[in-house]
Design a protein that fits this description.
Thrombin, subunit H, 33% strand, 6-stranded antiparallel β-barrel, single chain, globular, 7-stranded antiparallel beta sheet, binds 4-(aminomethyl)benzoic acid
């Protein structure tokens, strides 16, 4: 349990208190406001998890993006507590539904978290700064790397993940994607004040479409390129509080 962050631990205890059996989650229609998508659409997208995280099918707790045959980019807060035990992490590509055995699973050899990764808080939510980490995989996978790049002047983006479809949805296991607006830095500053650092973060989403718990580390795609990773936010789909994403440009 010492391996689990407060965030994951909270979910684990909630799951335990509701008596959830890890493999008994009913099918649900991750991402708020989106629709199910085949994992084959994102061959470079991985579910990051661990067999010791029994709360969720496949042990999934985050997403991640392949950047080289043996490198996966994910959120710092997803893996910082696994720095000394990287071998307990698994990375699974091509799995449409976490209750399936489909796709390709690889173990992790090492975890490198952004040297400036740190946490503050906003209205009780953990704010992650420089929320990036690179996992080195135990072997190379025969898959394309994700195209990476800044969003430029894109007005919308796309998010994908296996996470909650609402703040109260404990059961989604399907990969889902949604189109999200990119409201800009000023809107995010209005929502989050100094907790939002535009040099490091990017905002996306609305009350209708947003990322949520267990989508962290997954991609925000704009102009066909991964521009940022799901990081934090005040709840999910709350009006006036877009989701906050870690810009890739800030990984040294
Ligand atoms: C989370 O807890 C989380 N609505 C991820 C994304 C957002 C909020 C929370 C953004 O992993």
């Amino acid at each position: 349990m010492a391996l689990l962050s407060r965030r994951l631990l909270g979910t684990a205890l909630l799951g335990a208190s509701l008596g959830l059996a890890p493999l008994a989650a009913p099918p649900a229609n991750a991402v708020l406001g989106g629709a199910p998508v085949p994992a084959a659409r994102y061959p470079w997208l991985a579910a990051v998890g661990s067999p010791i995280f029994f709360v969720r099918p496949s042990g999934q707790f985050c997403g991640g993006v392949l950047t080289a045959p043996d490198r996966l980019l994910t959120a710092g807060h997803c893996v910082s507590m696994f720095r000394s035990v990287p071998g307990v992490l698994t990375v699974t590509f091509g799995r449409d539904d976490l209750t399936n055995r489909g796709g390709e699973t690889v173990t992790v050899k090492s975890v490198r978290v952004h040297p400036k990764y740190r946490e503050t808080s906003f209205k009780g939510e953990t704010v992650s700064h420089h929320d990036l980490a690179v996992l080195t995989l135990a072997r190379r996978v025969n898959r394309p790397s994700a195209p990476l790049g800044a969003p430029g002047d894109a007005r919308t983006g796309e998010i994908a993940g296996w996470g909650f479809t609402s703040e109260n949805d404990l059961f989604n296991t399907r990969l889902r994607a949604a189109r999200v607006p990119l409201p800009g830095d000023a809107a995010c500053r209005r929502a989050y004040g100094d907790s939002f650092d535009p040099s490091d973060m990017l905002c996306a989403g609305s009350a209708k479409a947003d990322s949520c718990q267990f989508d962290s580390g997954g991609p925000l795609i704009a102009g066909g390129r991964v521009a940022a990773l799901v990081s934090w936010g005040y709840g999910c789909g709350k009006p006036g509080y877009p989701g906050v994403y870690a810009k890739l440009a800030s990984m040294p």
